[in-house]
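[job 0412] stage=complex_fold ligand=zinc ion status=START
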Amino acid sequence: MLRKGVLLISLVALAAGAYAQKPRNIAPSRFNFFSKEQDIQLGKEAAAEIEKQIAVVTQPEVHDYVNRIAAKLVAQPEADQYPYTFKVVYDKTINAFALPGGPAYIHTGLILAAENEAQIAGVIAHEISHVALRHGTSQVTKANATQLLAGFGGAMLGGGLLGQLAQIGAGLGANSLLLKFSRGAETDADLLGARMMAKAGYDPIEMATFFQKLEEEEKRSGRAVPQFLSDHPSPGNRVKAVSAEVKMMPARQYTKGDSAQLARVKQVIQALPVPPRANTNFRAAGNPQAARPSTRMQRYQSRGLTFVYPSNWQVFQSQQSNEITIASREGILEVNGNAEIGYGAIVGLQQIQGGTELDRDTQNFLRQLMQQNRNMQPSGEAVRRIQIAGAPALLHLMFNSSPYPNVREVDAIVTVQHPQGLFYMILIAPEPEYQAAQPVFDQMIQSIQFAR
Ligand SMILES: [Zn+2]
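[job 0412] stage=complex_fold status=DONE, emitting structure tokens
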């Protein structure tokens, strides 16, 4: 029996050996108009910009914990000796990001979500890989080759690189190519990160396990994609790909890290005071245009209600079944870990007990809204009396605080009597965008129909 067992093991080893391939060469793309020095300069400029808006955690136990893990990874040849820095950001969302040339940021929410130290090491190794493989500037090069060729010469060095990129729409706005990667880049960052982890003694599978866990949670909850998954889109079965990579590596003893230490760091994070400035919407900063409604419309039709809405917006069903949100992903911003609509629409029905009366019910509804939104106030514009689906309706214009930085928000609130209560459509735009959005908003309002 014993001999048979040994034979079986050696056969398995033989089979694995037969499938094992040589590790693939993973290197930065040669098609990149930026030099390594420009990656570093661009990263410094972007970091200065971003750090005006985020809350960096300086608490030594948390900061040092992340930096101790990172130091083991940065020391590996795969990291290619960029001037890396690692900062922890006070933010409940599960995210991490790195800028070209080395500045990297890890959210407190990610540390809290990690099951072990190796998973945190995995995220850091993955981010380091994007830097070392120069994915950010490589993507900007591919997407803007013509403009870059026209405008970029030797004169580029000398400051203001980020500003020049912003002028051709390749700065830090929504969907920035500096931070949002292709699936191909994801595979490379996973595999290079796995090599880095293995040499530092961390179990590389933990990186893939963590990403897969996030993907599964997202599918299960049906909630909007966490920023991490939207910036690092799944290349498909990550655990399988990393396992195949590990098989090609020399056998090593791996660790998942010190679990007692991670538990302590999590406690410290949970006890941190909420900083006055905790905000991650730098991606949207200055760029609500990314959420601007298309003038092409599509039709919403459900439960006795019909209207049209912009073809680049989508419908999000709220948990309260009486309300839906319609917006583009760019129009929904994260503020302190909460999703807020900065550019879009909310449509709903408020049930009213007893008889309905448009003016009175609308006043009650506006009062409730102002209680829930402490910065909401009347704009001073006169109320407009309009017709919707043949019935009298009211249009109130309100001002509100916007999740976009440094702008005010305009809320156009339409109310109309409905057999079951008060129907409302709230159209939301940052003030500088309101004029551009208004024709589309008007079209949405005019298209409302109720089934008889
Ligand atoms: Zn990635």
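Residues 1-20, 153-159 have pLDDT under 50 and may be disordered.
[job 0412] exit 0
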